[in-house]
Design a protein that fits this description.
Layout lengths: L14 H8 L3 H44 L8 H23 L11 H9 L8 H4 L4 H46 L6 H32 L7 H8 L1 H16 L4 H18 L4 H13 L3 H14 L6 H14 L4 H14 L2 H14 L6 H14 L12
């Protein structure tokens, strides 16, 4: 079969039709691909910007928590313990709700089949009157007993759901009182806005569940089936309970230093998962490890902040801190390597080379990790074939 375009004269098409419908217009095709490229570029730009914004939000919250940690108790306080206990209680409430709903996973995984299973799992079919006359009295008595027991179970579940809603409403009220006592500053306002938005949804869902359970209990009468409206109200709560745990943990981080540094590290790790090159997240993570007296780890993260962005605004501050550490501990090879790491990433290769030679002189063990890394970094500065990603501890 010929790959050439057909001759218009051999068909019923006119030359104009051939040009319009068959022949490829390369200018139009090029324009189409150009538009697609621009759309994809815009989407990637928007996605990257959105990720950086979410990462920076977590860093800002962690930074506020770390700054506040210097002004609160260094020991765990009764308020800390109360809020942590509330976190555990909310987790138990969520697990109980999962159990009642016969859920195998999170709320998003519940579909119509699981809902029907939940509604029918304890439904006992009421025998028609003409059937009852045809079965033995003993079977009638057993069936009636099962039906009465199920009615009692349904009524008890409605009562438990009302109590469940009331307990969580009281717990949320106590959390609001503790928040007023903590009095976070304006720097925490964005987090407080999210807290307030979640609080409104959470309270509305609890009140809805309570209302539906009370209404179903009043209307149930002799009905042995659980009301679908109650199920719908229950379905709204698992994810809200998960977020409530996070909110209580945020409040706990404001009460004393130990939870502050614990949760700040989690927020910063989250920020780096979203944007691995966020220099501020690396710097603040270094602060966390400074508090834990892990100078080796903190130094790595401070230097990584400069590696992520040589123009980082705190780069000079980090180098001065490393220089002070070297001055205080001139025999510490790790401190000298941290300074060399930072200087190299900052673009001062001559000063970095000086510190790297110092590391080689200080470390007698040729298998020492610091000495191996110093040799690799020196090789990289000299232009030797060294993989750049091998120049950090881990």
């Amino acid at each position: 079969m010929s790959s050439e375009n057909p001759d218009p004269r051999e068909s019923l098409l006119t030359t104009e039709d051939y040009v319009k419908y068959i022949r490829v217009d390369f200018k139009w095709t090029l324009a189409m691909f150009g538009v697609i490229f621009l759309i994809l570029s815009a989407l990637l730009f928007w996605f990257g910007r959105s990720m950086r914004r979410h990462s920076n939000m977590r860093v800002a919250e962690a930074t506020y928590i770390l700054d506040r940690a210097d002004t609160v108790s260094a020991e765990i306080t009764p308020t800390t313990l109360e809020l942590e206990e509330m976190v555990v209680e909310v987790a138990q409430e969520r697990d109980w709700l999962f159990e009642q709903m016969s859920m195998d996973g999170r709320a998003e995984e519940i579909d119509a089949e699981l809902e029907q299973r939940f509604l029918d799992q304890s439904f006992h079919f009421e025998l028609p009157d003409d059937w009852r006359e045809q079965i033995p009295p003993q079977l009638q008595e057993w069936h009636d007993g099962e039906l009465d027991q199920r009615r009692a179970e349904v009524a008890a579940l409605y009562s438990e759901l009302v109590n469940f809603a009331e307990r969580n409403l009281e717990r949320q009220q106590r959390a609001d009182e503790l928040l007023e006592e903590l009095d976070p500053g304006e720097e925490f306002s964005e987090t407080l806005d999210r807290y307030e938005a979640h609080r409104s949804n959470y309270i509305a869902a609890l009140e809805q569940l309570k209302s539906q359970a009370e209404t179903a209990a009043a209307d149930a009468g002799e009905e042995p089936r659980l009301a679908s409206s109650v199920y719908d109200a229950m379905l709204e709560l698992p994810n809200l309970l998960n977020r409530t745990q996070l909110q209580y943990r945020r409040l706990s981080a404001l009460t004393s230093a130990p939870p502050a540094y614990f949760y700040a590290e989690r927020y910063l790790r989250d920020a780096l998962r979203i944007d691995p090159r966020n220099p501020e997240a690396k710097y603040q993570l270094g602060r966390v490890y400074d508090y834990l007296d892990l100078d080796e780890v903190s130094g790595e993260h401070y230097a990584r902040a400069i590696k992520a962005d040589p123009g980082y605004e705190r780069a000079g501050e980090i180098i001065e801190m490393f220089e002070q550490r070297v001055e205080e501990s001139p025999e510490d090879s790790r401190a000298s390597y941290d300074l060399a790491f930072a200087l190299h990433e900052y673009g001062e290769e001559d000063r970095a080379r000086e510190q790297l030679y110092k590391v080689l002189n200080l470390e007698e063990d040729r298998h020492s990790m610091v000495k191996v890394l110093a040799e690799k970094r020196l090789g990289y500065i000299r232009g030797e074939a060294t993989m750049y990603n091998q120049l950090t501890y881990y």
